[in-house]
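Summary for the steering committee. One of the milestones for this cycle was to obtain a three-dimensional model of the protein with beta-D-glucopyranose bound, which we needed before selecting residues for the alanine scan. The sequence and ligand used are listed below.
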Amino acid sequence: MRYFILFSLLVTLTINLSAQNYDKQIEALLAKMTLDEKIGQLHQVPGDITTGTDVKKDNLLNSIRDGSVGSILSHTNFDNKITMQQVAVKETRLGIPLIFGFDVIHGYKTIFPIPLAQAASWNLSLIEQIERVAATEAAADGQNWTFAPMVDISRDPRWGRSMEGAGEDPYLGSRIAEARIRGIQGRNLNDQATLAACVKHYAGYGFGEAGRDYNSVDMSEQRLREMVLPPFKAAAKADAATFMNAFNTLNGTPASMNKHLITDILRGEWGWKGMIVSDWNSFGETIIHGAAEDDIDASAKCLAAGSDMDMAGGTFQRGLKKALENGRVTQAQIDEAVRRVLRLKFELGLFDDPFKYLNKERNKSQIGKAEYRTLARSAAAQSMVLLKNQNNILPLKATTTKKKVLIVGPYADSRGNKDYMSFWTLGIGFRAYDSTQVVTPAQGLRPALEALGYEVKVAQVGKNGVCDVMAQSTAFEAAKDADIVIACVGEMGYNCGESRSVANIGLPGNQEEWLKTLKINNKPVVMVLFNSRPLTFEWASANLDAIVVAWQPGYETGNGLADVLTGKTNFSGRLPMTFPRNLGQVPLYYNQLRTGRPQEKFGTLWTSGYLDSEVTPAYPFGFGLSYSTVEYSEIRIEKSTIGNAETLTAFVTVSNKGTMAVDETVQCYINDPAADVARPLKELKSFVRVHLEPGDAKPVQFNITPEDRSYWNDAVQFKCDPGKFKLYVGPNSANVKEALFTVTK
Ligand code: BGC
C-alpha cells in the first residue's frame, strides 16, 4: 500500500511537472512573440484540397516563412509537408512547427464503412480499432490532427451529414464518441501513431431546419442539453484535444461566436481545457449570417466567445489586430488562444521533433497493411443490417444443383463516383477514386458463391444510380433465367457527405420501377441497399424477399457482403437511426414525447397522426435481424423499490435457439411516466453485445444509476425524481419486455 501511495504521488508529480514544463516553455515562447506572430499561430490555411467555398490562397510557403500560418489543413502530398515544416522550423524567427490537420472520417488510406455504418455495429471495440488504424495511417503520412469524430446527433435523414455521425441517440452517440477518441488519441498524444481528435460540430449542426446543411437551429435549452450536448460532454470528459465550432446559428447566435456554448458550458461547466478551431471560414460566415458587421467585428465576437483558431477564412488575419487596437478584445484574450495552440503542439511532441510524423520509413511501412483490410472486411460485415428475410431465403447455402444467381443493379460492380465510400475519402485525394482498391459486390460475391456451387452472372446496369430503359430490359432478360437475384441499389458514394442533403429520401432515380421490372419474373429478390442515410422503400419492403442495409461499406464491400449473405458471418448490425415509411414522417425518432393524444390505431381521428400514413416507422431504432432466434426472458429486478441515490440492478437471460452463433445487442431503455416535464417514451440507457453459440443462455446485467434517471427540467436543472419508472429490455426499441420499479425519496 505504501509503495502504491508513493507510486501514485510520483505519477501525479510527473504529470504536474510535465504540465508545468509546458507552461514554462509556452510562457517563454509567448514572451518572445510579436502580435503578428501570435495571430499567425491562430491562422489555419488550406493545403492541396479544398472542401469548402473558395478562399483566396496566398503563396503558402511565403506565408509560412513570414510566420503568419500556424496550421495547414487538408494537405495530402507527403514531401510537400516536409518542405513546409522545414520552412516553419528553419526559416522563421522562432521556429514554431506547423500542425497538420485532416479530415480522417472513415479511414485514411484504408477505407472503412462510413461512420453511421460503424455505429450500426454497436461494437465499441471495433470502432476503436478502426480509429486506431486510421490514426496510424494518417500519422504516418504526416497528419497530426483529425477533424473527427463528428458527434452531431441527427434525426433527419435528409441531412447529408447523417452519414458522418452515430445516428439519433445521445447515449449511443456518447459511447461511440468515447470509443473514437480512444482510438484516435491512444494513450498519449505524443505517440508517433496517434492524432489529436477534434470533436465537431459544436453545437446543434444536426438539427438544421428542413434537413438542409448549414441551416438555422432553434431549440430549447432542455433539448440542447438532453439531445445535442451529451456526446460533446462525453468527448470533453474523454480528454478530446480539440473541438470545432458548428456553421449554424443556435437560437440566432452563430455557434462560432456563441459564448454560452463555448465559455459558459464547454470551458465553464465542463472544465475542458483544449483548443477550439472554427469550421471552414465560420468566423467569416458570422458576417454573412448578419451577426457581425465586418472582419473586425467577427474577430472580436468569435475570440471573445472563446474560439481560438481560424480555419481557412483568414478573418483573424484581417480583423484581429484592429479588434485589439479598437479595444474590442484584450491582449490577454489573444494570448490565451495562442497558449492553447502552442500547448497542443507541445503535447503532440512537435517541438521535440517537428519531423516525427514525417518519417519516410514509417510512411512506407505503416500504410495499407494487409491486416487493416481484414479489419475493414469484418467491419463491413458487422455494420450491415438485415431488415427482412422472408422464408429464410438467406443465407445462401451450398448447392449441388448449380443454382443460378444474378448480381445486378447500378451498384453490382460499379467503378466510379467514390461508390461504396463517400465524399469524405480525402486521404486518397479529393476526386481520386482508386477502383482497384475496392472489392465490389460482384468481385466479392462471385468467388464466394461459386465456391458454394452456384452459377453466377453479373449485370452492372445503369449509370450514376439511374436505371434507364436499357437497364430495365437487361435486368428483365437476365432475371428470367435466375434462381435468385441480388439487386444492388441505393446512393452514389459521391453523394454522401457534406452539403449533400436531399429533399427526397426514396430510392434514387427510377430504381423502384426497375426493381418492379425485376420482380415481374417472380424470382426471389434480395435487395442490397448502399446508402448513407435512412431511405424509404415501402414497395420493396412489402414485395421483395430479403432486404439488407449495407450502407457505404468501404474497400471491403464485396467481401463483407459475401460473408453475411453466405452466413460465414451472422448478421449483427442494428439501425442507429429510425427508418421512416415516408418522407412526410420526418423527423421520426424513437425517443419522442408521448403527446396528449397518442395514436394507437391508424385512422383514429383526434389523435396525433396522419390521414394518409401510419405514425409508426418502417423499421425502428435498434432494429436488425440475424440468422438466429434469440429469446429474451422476463426482466428480473433485484430490488424493485430503491432510494433516490441508489442504482437499480436488473437482469435478463438471452438464449440462442437457432443453429448459428450470433452477437446479440441487448438494449435497455427507461421511461419516467410522471416528471416535472414530459419525458420521452423510451430512452436508451445501456446496451450489451453478447456472443451466443447455438444453445447458449446467458444472463445480462443492467445498472441504472441516479444519473441515468435524471433529466433537465424547464428551469434547466438536472434532477432525479422519486416516483415510478418503467424499464424495458429487448432486441430493439419497439420490441421489449417491461418491468416497473419505484424510487423513493
Ligand atoms: C466541414 C468540417 C471539416 C472542414 C475541413 C468543413 O466544411 O464542415 O467538418 O472538418 O470542412 O475540411
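Key point for the committee: The CA atoms of residues 403 and 454 lie 5 Å apart.
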